[in-house]
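Suppose you are handed only these lines of text.
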Amino acid sequence: MKAITVIPRKTNSLKLQDVEVPSPNSHEVLLKVQRIGICGTDRDIISGFYGEAPEGSSYLILGHESLCRVSETGRFVRGLKKGDLVVPTVRRNCPENCLNCRNGESDMCVTGHYKEHGIKGLHGFASDFAMSDASFVVRISESLSEIGVLLEPLTIVEKGISQTFKIQQGRLKWKPEKMLVLGAGPVGLLATAVLRMRGFEVHTVATRERDSLKARLVEETGATYINSKETPLSSLEHKYDAVFEITGSPSVALEAQALIRVNGVACFLGIYRQQQQLEDAGAIFTDLVLGNKVHFGSVNANKSYFVSGAKDLVLIQKKWPSLLKRMITRQKEPEDFEAAYSPESEEEIKTVINFE
Ligand SMILES: [Zn+2]
Ligand SMILES: [Zn+2]
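From them, the structure of the protein bound to zinc ion can be written out as follows.
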């Protein structure tokens, strides 16, 4: 079968190769991959920043965002059958089975020895067939057969929002009204849609023009789009109950601090690669203290967020029928892998590769 692979930590090692179809053990499922989605994590692995091949393999099959159909089930697998439309989660429990992994929250693993499909120690889904532990596979509605590949990025949003509410409701009476989303890539757009669906006033900031696709998709949900080139963050007059930072820009992340209302919260979902000097750390911490503000980070998502995300995808599709489809801006064939993984144009939102 065809598989898109890299040799981890080696740049320019991306290739399409022929590998053997895996066969599932009694607790696994063999998946016929329909589509995979591409994001910054894949590009970071291709650039050699991280990535780890499975034990005994010299290469890693890429792909952690996927939409699959069950092709074959192991002997002890219950609740899944051939043909089911499914999305496997990404992370698997650490071998020590730490407190959180044991509790179904491998996204909160404390040992750091977890594995992740397509990223760390397990092959991903960028191949004709792929394998997963059946207990980490979530069945989704047939109505998502075109856009179900957006579920994995949505789970990042599901976790971020859920944790925001848990933190806030655990420390005060919280009735949020205004939310700020920094970034309008796939995760920012999905966050905008979910927050709008829950009835909040949402402002979403990005650098694209007002007539760009991203801006139009933001406004379709009833959120307000702010072009940060026209309206710098420092000039915003509003304060927000919660800020979701998804740009991965440290300077934007720092500016987010001033935009949080008293008793508010900032949820950081980016990876901040550039270096940034802090001009006045004292002012930031003083503002944090005097405003009872919370800053927290959130990574990955466990199965519960895939289950809630699958429900939200159906609801988003009902409310704004073309929104999710229009987020998939490029579809490529596996043979065209180089173009698919190359940097996106400014209007690009989500690129997918079809293995169907
Ligand atoms: Zn991703
Ligand atoms: Zn663990």
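What can we learn from it? The mean pLDDT is 96. The domain at 2-139+327-354 is CATH 3.90.180.10 (Quinone Oxidoreductase; Chain A, domain 1).
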